[in-house]
Amino acid sequence: MKKSPVISVFVLLLTVTLMSARYASDGYKVGDVVQDFKLKNVDGKTVSLADNKGTKGYIIAFTCNTCPVAKAYESRIMALNEQFAPKGYPVVAIQSNDAQRSPGDSYNAMQQRSKASNYAFPYLYDDTQAVARAFGATNTPHMFVVKREGDQFRIAYIGAIDNNQYDAAAADKKYVEAAVNELLAGKPVTTPSARAVGCGIKWKSV
Fold first, then answer.
1. Any idea which of 2-11, 158-167, 197-206 has the lowest mean pLDDT?
2. What is the four-CA torsion angle of 35, 42, 147, 50, rounded to 10 degrees?
3. 141 preceded by a cis bond (ω within 30 of 0)
4. What CATH number corresponds to the domain at position 146?
5. Is 84 helix (H, G, I), strand (E, B) or coil?
6. How many domains does the chain have?
7. Domain residue limits at 102
8. What is the mean pLDDT of the chain?
9. Which of 132, 134, 152 shows the shortest CA–CA distance to 142?
């Protein structure tokens, strides 16, 4: 029996929808243990989560140079590092955009951005995009708070920095800050996830 065009289109749309849902569900969830990674920092050195034995955890920020939302949140990411690095939760920033699609996010451009903004934290180049895919990062910025458990790191929070991408002073829900403060106090994270906002990561062509 020959399929009607309407049925064929419906099947195609359903397949695409299911594939999109599957992709969206990939990556770490709250409570998962993170597999360590090694990425090149803007100073040319390789960085991994295991390098700093004195941390209680990390604030991992998938961000970039070019996204307007990432730019708007840059000072807030820097402030998170200033606030929490001395308490054992430093920031690690990761840039995963494909430089072919987004030349302003090349390794050289990352080095320039880090120097110009005076980053006090690593700015790592996820050239293969393997780390972004492992985490399930989709946006810039996309935040992950991980807490140390022995030699492992477990996801405690995933999502947005706060609830106002336009005005830091107007944000009345500071998700990352609240999560880290709760972890430092030995409490469970009240809001373990919030929808990340920002530009989509520029993936390499398949």
1. 2-11
2. 60
3. yes
4. 3.40.30.10
5. helix
6. 1
7. 28-200
8. 90
9. 132
